[in-house]
From TrEMBL:
SUPFAM superfamilies: CorA soluble domain-like, Magnesium transport protein CorA, transmembrane region
Cellular component annotations (GO), alphabetically ordered: plasma membrane
Membrane topology: Multi-pass membrane protein
Organism per entry: Mycobacterium yunnanensis
Pfam families in the record: CorA
Gene Ontology MF: a single term: cobalt ion binding
Name of the protein this chain belongs to: Magnesium transport protein CorA
Known function: Mediates influx of magnesium ions. Alternates between open and closed states. Activated by low cytoplasmic Mg(2+) levels. Inactive when cytoplasmic Mg(2+) levels are high.
Organism domain of life: Bacteria
Reaction(s) catalysed by this chain's protein: Mg(2+)(in) = Mg(2+)(out)
Keywords: Cell membrane, Ion transport, Magnesium, Membrane, Transmembrane, Transmembrane helix, Transport
TM stretches of this protein: 310-329, 341-361
Subcellular localization, as worded in the UniProt entry: Cell membrane; Membrane
Family: Belongs to the CorA metal ion transporter (MIT) (TC 1.A.35) family.
Amino acid sequence: MPSFRTLQPSMLRPANRRIPDPDASAIHVPVARAMVDCGVYADGKRLPGKYTHAAALAKVRELQREDVKAFVWIGLHEPDERQMQSVADVFGLHELAVEDAVHAHQRPKLERYDNTLFLVLKTIMYVEHESVAKAREIVETGEIMIFVGQDFVVTVRHGDHGGLAAVRKRMDTTPASCALGPYAVLHAIADHVVDHYLEVTDLVETDIDAMEENVFSATSETDIEHIYLLKREVVEMRRAVGPLNLALQRLGTDHNDLISKEVRRYIRDVVDHNTQASDRVASYDEVLSSLVQAAVGKVSMQQNMDMRKISAWVAIAAVPTAIAGIYGMNFEHMPELAWTFGYPMVLLVMAAVCSGLYFTFRRNHWL
């Protein structure tokens, strides 16, 4: 009798047919992949141990039931939508703020959702370079989004710079600051970002001084493209620093029901520093606008000088050309044709007139 064999699904599939890859967006990446750090703070001191975001909040609520002042600080770096939504579900974050935190590219702003504040900060980093002429980028920007509630701080960072490890280390070693609560962490982050603004503005000022010296130097050539590069970077800084003033002012004066008087006092100090940085950036923008006009004037002057030199050499060359053109017409009755010294005399006249024109133009600074 013939034998029958059960065919496997792989035997029924054509040999040249590829198995479709699963949709990458459907793969769930755990929050831990985007989590930089997660710490639980009780009475200003960080508790030992590692926590997930859900376990950390549960620990905080447990401590609060024991009348211990506690909060959790979780830091994320460029989370995707699922990771951010997982955190939002635990901490009760508003969906509009969550969307902003995922997609980034936001202006500095402050929003309030019930008892949660959402602050957007733009970070800036100075890109080291040998000179502006060889630089392709001078300032690089990133973002930090901060969610602050009564018992939690969630920071979301975008960009390769602007890490908050130094801020967290300082807070961990100063329990008195942490004891002020989550809004003290908000102040520490804002203070760190704004202080870095001042450092970057000092470095950019050095580039502007070098460019100013180059523009007003009589021996160097001015490339307006380099000034435009600096101006573009200053405009990027202005977009990062300027709008933050309003958000910080609101933090320092409003939301009395959320932020303590002591923390608001510290935030007003950050406002002063940010105003100082904003004024510097605005002055840099004005200086560069003036440098553009000066460079354009210098280029126009150089072009006028070049045209005068060209005109002078054309005038000098026109004399022998005209004389040679006249005697090249080959008429029979022309003066000095039969004179023995006519030819050298014409050459001598050409040389004398051209020399006279040359020294005249030199005396008038045309050559």
